[in-house]
């Protein structure tokens, strides 16, 4: 399937496709680490430490490798707010493929520079991802390029699903993922649903096209401006929409202020630099209960100026002090010890006047710091 084709009725993505993607990618992309954010009570899958600073390189690289297996050597063009473009540029550089990326004019300079660094052609067009996507489709039709969607492509979805396969060893009960077009959520859900893991999507208020689509709301709305530019999508994927209708457990919509505070707390408390979309899943996770939950930090390509402004403007609430959960020992274990055992033998004499017995506080077997 070429990218954004609306005809996805016959297209299927299976768990076997995700496993095949993992086999292709392991030569190029080592697994990203997990980090336990104790103050949030949540594990973090650090895709901000991925090649090019985002999970998007997984799908782009898998798509190019799968195309090479099929004998498709066309130049590739893609529209992107930044991270898919960087992932495609890096993958094309590694494999010797010609790549063109179309990005909105307002894309972060960090991401534009990252694309140019790997030698891909950069075209800036339009003021949103959807305008850039329409222009990329036009160029693809005119020049015979392969149009590679940032999310609505089976090879891309399978590549993003390898994030879920790497999470399987953690044995989470809940995994939270940001949703723009839905490629990451579809791939992760495909990889983990057979294990009984709940997969919950995260979107920003006013930037929730997938939630509205899954709820059957007709029509498209222009998404609001948001710090999470990576998920600012007006028209979510057709293929991903169909998959998420079957696989996704829920979508949590967070306020912009919650997102900004979470990003700053991540930087100050966990020393993790995330872009807006990268902090989105964790912001949603604060509303989700789970014994062993994990949020995907999807990317870390944040402009230094934006981070400096956030650190200056946002004053996160001080974290609550940890509660102490105390388990008392049985009564006989905390009884008053015999006075004789407290007196050294050299000091023992008839003239020795022992102090009156005092109450002994119950011993605490274990003190556990539990963070709210």
Describe the overall structure.
This is L-threonine ammonia-lyase. It comes from Vulcaniibacterium tengchongense. One of its GO terms (biological process) is isoleucine biosynthetic process. There is one protein chain. With 372 residues, the protein is of the alpha/beta class. Among the domains are: 55-152, Rossmann fold (3-Layer(aba) Sandwich); 155-313, Rossmann fold (3-Layer(aba) Sandwich), CATH 3.40.50. It has helices spanning 15-25, 56-70, 83-95, 109-117, 129-143, 154-160, 162-167, 183-192, 209-214, 238-247, 256-269, 276-285, 304-313, and strands at residues 34-37, 42-46, 76-79, 99-103, 121-124, 146-147, 174-178, 198-204, 250-254, 293-297, 323-328, 364-370. A 6-stranded mixed sheet has the order 1-2-10-7-8-9. It is globular. The model is unreliable at 1-6, 332-355 and 357-372 (pLDDT under 50).
Features:
372 residues, alpha/beta, Rossmann fold, 4-stranded parallel β-sheet, 16% strand, disordered C terminus
Question: Using DSSP, what is the number of strands?
Answer: 12
The tally of helices reads 13
Following the backbone from N to C, one meets helices and strands in this order, namely HEEHEHEHEHEHHEHEHHEHHEHEE
**Distance separating the two termini:** 47 Å
Structural class: alpha/beta
**Residue windows where pLDDT falls under 50 for at least 5 positions:** 1-6, 332-355, 357-372
CATH top level assignment of the domain at 155-313: Alpha Beta
Sheet with the most strands: spatial strand order: 1-2-10-7-8-9
Strand content: 15-25%
> What would the principal axes of the Cα set say about the shape?
globular
Main pleated sheet: 6 strands, mixed
Query: Average pLDDT value?
Result: 86
What name does the CATH topology of the domain at 155-313 carry?
Rossmann fold
Using the 3D structure, state the CATH architecture of the domain at 155-313: 3-Layer(aba) Sandwich
GO molecular function, one term: L-serine ammonia-lyase activity
Region (Disordered): 349-372
Keywords: Lyase, Pyridoxal phosphate
InterPro entries: Ser/Thr_Dehydratase (IPR050147), TrpB-like_PALP (IPR001926), TrpB-like_PALP_sf (IPR036052)
């Amino acid at each position: 399937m070429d990218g954004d084709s609306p005809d996805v009725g016959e297209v299927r993505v299976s768990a076997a496709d995700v496993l095949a993607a993992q086999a292709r990618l392991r030569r190029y992309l080592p697994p990203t680490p997990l980090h336990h954010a104790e103050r949030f009570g949540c594990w973090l899958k650090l895709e901000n430490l991925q090649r090019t600073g985002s999970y998007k390189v997984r799908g782009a690289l898998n798509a190019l490798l799968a195309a090479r297996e099929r004998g498709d050597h066309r130049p590739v063009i893609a529209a992107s707010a930044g991270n898919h473009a960087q992932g495609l540029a890096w993958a094309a550089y590694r494999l010797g493929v010609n790549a063109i990326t179309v990005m909105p004019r307002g894309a972060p300079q960090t991401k534009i520079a990252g694309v140019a660094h790997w030698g891909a052609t950069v075209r800036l067009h339009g003021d949103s991802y959807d305008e850039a996507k329409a222009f990329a489709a036009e160029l693809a039709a005119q020049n015979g390029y392969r149009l590679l969607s940032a999310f609505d492509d089976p090879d891309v979805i399978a590549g993003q699903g390898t994030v879920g396969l790497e999470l399987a060893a953690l044995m989470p009960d809940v995994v939270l993922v940001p949703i723009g077009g839905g490629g990451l959520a579809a791939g992760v859900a495909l990889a983990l649903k057979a294990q009984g893991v709940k997969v919950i999507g995260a979107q920003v208020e006013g930037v929730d096209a997938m939630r509205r689509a899954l709820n059957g709301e007709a029509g498209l709305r222009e998404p609001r401006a948001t710090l999470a530019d990576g998920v600012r999508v007006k028209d979510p994927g057709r293929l991903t929409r169909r998959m998420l209708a079957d696989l996704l457990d829920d979508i949590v919509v967070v306020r912009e202020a919650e997102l900004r505070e979470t990003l700053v707390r991540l930087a100050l408390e966990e020393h993790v630099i995330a872009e807006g979309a990268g902090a989105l899943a964790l912001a949603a996770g604060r509303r989700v209960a789970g014994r062993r939950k994990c949020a995907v930090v999807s990317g870390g390509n944040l402009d230094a100026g934006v981070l400096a402004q956030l650190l200056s403007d946002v004053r996160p609430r001080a974290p609550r002090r940890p509660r102490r959960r105390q388990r008392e020992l049985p009564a006989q274990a905390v009884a008053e010890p015999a006075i004789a055992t407290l007196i050294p033998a050299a000091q023992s004499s008839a003239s020795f006047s022992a102090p009156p017995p005092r109450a002994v506080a119950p011993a605490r077997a274990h003190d556990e710091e539990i963070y709210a």
